[in-house]
Structures are given as structure tokens and as C-alpha cells.
Amino acid sequence: MKFNFSIILLFVSTSFYCQDSLSLFKKAKENVKISGGFSSIGTAYMINDTSLSQRDPFFWQLGANINIKIGQVSIPFSAVMNQQERNFTQPFNQYGLSPKYKGITAHLGYRSLKFSDFSLSGNQFLGVGIEIAPKNSIVRGKALYGRFARAVDGYYTDGKVVGSPSFERWGLGGMVEIGSSKNNVGVVVFRAKDDQASIASFANDATIKPGENLIFGLTTKQKLSKELSFKGEIDWSAFTKDLRLDPTVLEGFSYLNNIGPLFHANASSSFSKAVKADLEYNKKKFKVGFGYRRIDPEYQTMGSVYLNNDFEDLQGKTSLRMLKNKLTLAGSAGFQRNNLDDSKASEMLRLISSFSANYNINENFMVNGAFSNFNSQSYMTIVNSLDTNRYAQVTKNANLQLMYAKANDVRRIAASIRGNFQNAKINGIDNTTLYNGGVSFQYGHLKSGLNVVSAINASKNITETYDIVSVGPTLGLNKRFLSGKISASASASALKTFLGGVDNGYVLNVKSMGTFKLNRHHTFNLIFSTIGKNNATTDTQETTISLGYNYAF
Q: Which of 220, 225, 322, 331 could join 355 via S-S bond, C-beta 3.0 to 4.6 A?
């Protein structure tokens, strides 16, 4: 009896253990959620004149987007791969994930962060980063370290450079923000440097120079009152264009020589700043704001793909809603100038003003219009003379549009008619006048899934030597079949041009696409597109065929 009782007790205990294990496994499984998808596409390209081809005859790309959620931890992952990776400084084969837990987000792989407009502003890097933003905390922060450009060692062919050689570039930085979302102050530090030893063929080339950049910045947002708010930013950038030069003391900013490995100053170094400020007053139906920017002539940052410098501008804008919000009026005006340090032979001043109005006549009709004026003047001082040449350009632009829309449970209808006028004068003489207009109509039948779009556009461009007239129609159809599992669309547009009243050829564009959704996981796409161009000097036909597959889970 004792033996039998022991066996029964063991069996019962084992049963309870298995049930408990299964329960824990089921609970763990419920806490883990995986979603996302994979995509692939292959594109074939053909042209009747291969000497004009600027694309590969075949292109492929693979992509993945996966999100793993374990309780309150979210781990998104993305990757892109295609055959163009070998041809570019920044690779097109990319992968990365950003796991998140409550107020903490980590970034691994190919990611991008933004500190401010003039420091780190969305430039992509390969590395690690972190964002810390607790829900009820007044302190938030970001930090990163990674490679911003990989080494590309170009080569010479018949004395010419083939490829785009560049040094490997690494960067790191951080940002701390203190305060609420409406009232805060932030501090930014960002540093990037090229690796001189990363390429061999161009290590001593005069045109390919390894550089270094150190940025320190301050940002702020202030809600001064219920209606009045202010936000601003100022950044200082120390930039060395060629690290191979011997160290020297940067005149006026000698302290940059005393910050150790953070920055290496020499004869190619510069120190500059960028400033941005916006003040806005917003009270119910009335809004007015002023914005100011100044970017010094030599201001650069390795944390932005592209950034203009050597300009200063001031802009004011306002808007007003009237007649029970049916009428909205808006206007803006501002100026911009360059040559801030008087180092250039020419100087440009731009004056810009615009006005727009939007009026909802009733639930079906709406009309809007806008007018803008762009005045650009440049002055060039002639060397060894007291004379100054003045170049002035004035561009005026006006447009008007009337729209109609009506929808019910059966169909949707929309139509519009628009017109545009543009005139450009150089030194008081009419140089270019453009007239443009069009009519469009859209119809959609909700039950059958049929949509029709049609339009006619025409334009006339008048210059001092000739005039060009272009006119052409557009037609598009879209239809769903088998309860939305299959959708097909086709569109065609033609544009006929006349130069001085003489036939100057045409452009014909035809495109069709089909989508088959097998189920909620599998989707197939087929796209066909052809463009034909014919004029006195050109007769080309370009065709692309793309086949894609998407898997979602």
C-alpha cells in the first residue's frame, strides 16, 4: 500500500507540475508578440537606345521589418539589402533594431538620431545609441557612437579618378534636456573625425582631405504664457578641414588648442556659429509669429547630410480665421541676405512675401487662392573700380482653384478647376511668363470598388526668344475583384508640345499594376511601366517590369 500510494502521489505531483509548466509556458507565450514582414522586389529595365541608359538592366532589393514585444519591452528590427551596395559610400545593405522598454530606447545597427537642426540632424550611422525619456522625469537624454561614413579607396584609370573616395568617419555625441515638454533647456555635444589611415590611394591627395568637427550647442523651448511661446537654438562649430597639417593656435579661439583629444586645431581650422529663434503668439482664431536664422559663412557639421551657410533671414507670418471658420487668411513676409563677412565680390538680398485665402462656400464647394512675390537683388563691385553692377529679379506667382466634392454610401465624386500665373522679370524686363491650367474629375463607386480619374492640363511658357505650349490628357482606372483579394489599376497620360507654333513631339506614359492578396500573409505585386519620348532629336522608349512579394505575420 505504501508503494502504491507513493506511485499515486508521484503521478499526481507530476501532473500538477506539468500543468503548472504548461500554464507558465502559455502565459510566457501570450506575453511575447512578434509582428512584421519581409519584402522582395525585382525590376527589369529596357530601353531602345542603350547609349542613353542610366540604370542597370536588372535591380533587386530585399527588406525586413520585424517587431518583437516581450511584456513592456519592444524590439523593432529592420534590414535592407540590394545589389547597389558596392557602388556607394554609404551602404544600401542596412540592418538595425531599436529595442524599447518603458522610457528607454536603444539603437543598434544602422540608425539615425536628431539632437538639433545645426548639430546632429538625422545623419545615418552604424553603431549604438540610446534615448532615455522617463515618463514623469524632467531630465531626458540621448547618446550615440558609431561610423558615419565607411572608407572608400578610389582608384585611377587613365589619369582619372574612378569612384568617390572618402575617409572612414566615426562620431559620438550626447544631448541632455532638462524641463517639461513646454519649458526646457538642452545641451548638445557632438564630435566626428575622419580616420587618416582608412584609405591608401588618396591618403596624401590634395583634393581628398581628412577632417574633424566638434560642436557644442544650447536649445530651449519656453511657454511664456498661455498664448506666447518661444523656441531657439545656438550651436558653435569648430571644424578642421585637413588633419594632416601641423598644429597651430587658432587665432581668437586659442582655448580650442587646450581641450586635449577633442579637437586638433591647425591652419585649416575655423570656428563659427548658427542661431535660430522662433516667437509665436496663438490665440484661438488669430496667430502671428516671427522667425530669425543666422548661419555663419564657414559653419559646417558632420552630423547633417546637407546644410546651407552664409545667410541671415528674418520672417514674419500670420493667419486669421473668420466667418465661423469658413474663411482663413494667411500671409508672410521676410528677407534674406548673404556675404555676412563681406568676403565675397557679390552680395545678394532676397525679399519674399505671400498671401493666401481659403473659403468653404458650403459642404460641397471650396475655393482657395494665393499670391507670392519673390524679389532677388545682387550687387557686384568691379575690381579696381568704384562702379557696382546691380542684378535684380522679380518673380510673381498667383493661383486660383475651385473644388467640388460630394460623397454618400454609394459613390464619391470630386472635381476641380485651377489656374496659375507666373511672371519673372530681370532688371525690369519681362523674361518669362507662364500660364498653367487644368480640369480634373474623380468618381468612385464604393460597392464595386471602381475608381476613375481623368484630367486635362495645359500650359504656355513665353520667353524673349520663343513660346512653348503643352497640352495633354490623363486617365486612370482602379478596380477591386474577389472581395478585395485582387486589385488592378491602369493609367495613361500624354503631353503634346508645340515650339513657336510648330509640332515639337510628345511624351506618352502608360502604367499598370496588379496586386494579388492570397491571404493575410502573402501578397504579390506586378507593375508594368513604359515611357515614350519623341521630338526632333529624340525617339526613346523606356520600359520597366517589376515583380514583388510581401510576407506579413
A: 331
